[in-house]
Amino acid sequence: MISSFTQRRRFSDLSEQEVLALAISSEEDDARIYRSYAQMLRTEYPGSAKIFDGMAVEEDSHRKRLIDMHVVRFGEVIPLIRREHVAGFYARRPIWLTKNLSLDTIRSEASGMEAQAARFYETAAAHTSDAATRKLLGDLAAAEAGHEKSASRLEAKHLPGDVREQEDAGERRQFILTWVQPGLAGLMDGSVSTLAPIFATAFATTNSHTTLLVGTAAAVGAGISMGFTEAAHDDGVLSGRGSPWKRGLASGMMTAIGGLGHALPYLIPDFWTATAIAMCVVFIELWAIAWIQNRFMETPFLRAALQVVVGGALVFAAGALIGGG
User: Fold this and answer.
1) Taking Cα atoms as reference points, which of 66, 84, 57, 83 lies closest to residue 17?
2) How far apart are CA 149 and CA 156, in angstroms?
3) What pLDDT is stored for residue 30 in this prediction?
4) Tell me, what CATH number does 131's domain have?
5) How many CB atoms sit inside 10 A of residue 204's CB?
6) 153 and 175 share a domain?
7) Spatial contact of 81 and 20, defined as CB atoms under 8 Å apart
8) Which end of the chain is more exposed for a tag (fewer CB within 10 A), N or C?
9) How do strand 9-10 and strand 86-87 relate by DSSP bridges?
10) What is the mean pLDDT of each run of 10 residues along the chain (325 residues)?
11) 75 and 174: one domain?
């Protein structure tokens, strides 16, 4: 890593031809990134996909103008120089890391790309004393700033208010299907189903260490089971619920968290202190579940609270009675 860094050229050491070549390769990379965004979004967000198609065309036109300038000034052989060859030059997120980004994050990423490029060229132009280089960098800064205006025009054309609202609603729905629903199911299962074994063990043994072991085992085991069940029973292709592994991760993690919430208080050696804290945690968990149902699933809060709290109380009572008997 150190060797790679020390081999990079400083921007101030680049010739005008190399600066132009760097701009050409950068425009080419950005056009490719925008087309990748468009391809990822085309099925679910066609309006936003058209925006990125248009931005890619803008990048192509700037690249062509830069190539024409290079041919006139330096000939047809363009030096091979890219962002990673220049120390301090703005970087782009690898495209494979953008596949799981949300729609808003992709929009923000694209806006940042244009602003970053414009800001870099403006700064570079201000630090050069060569008139021709200053003009070249200033032209590039103006071109990049113009891209932001082009993006606004394209958004107004392809993404009017009603279309954007539909896409945002679709993204929220997908988030709920992929993350919230499986996570909520896991949290409910982990919080409620583990109440009986944990508190049955607690009241049967009045031993914090034993209760901790049983509770941890129940929570982790339930998390593994729920995670694999969620991932295996629906591949998401027909249901549209998204990646099975994402859903499985959400379900498994939240199941384990729900169970561990009232198992970990038994790290406290004093049994009755640990039990009192565990009961408080259960109360908080059940109300949190009711809030999530109301916030994301649009379940009336009182109905959600009644279902969750009454159900949790019954399971707790069952565990306490079995353990106390």
Assistant:
1) 66
2) 11
3) 86
4) 1.20.1260.10
5) 17
6) no
7) no
8) N
9) parallel
10) 57 80 87 88 81 86 83 88 77 61 70 74 71 76 66 51 53 70 84 87 92 93 87 64 81 91 93 92 86 77 77 79 74
11) no
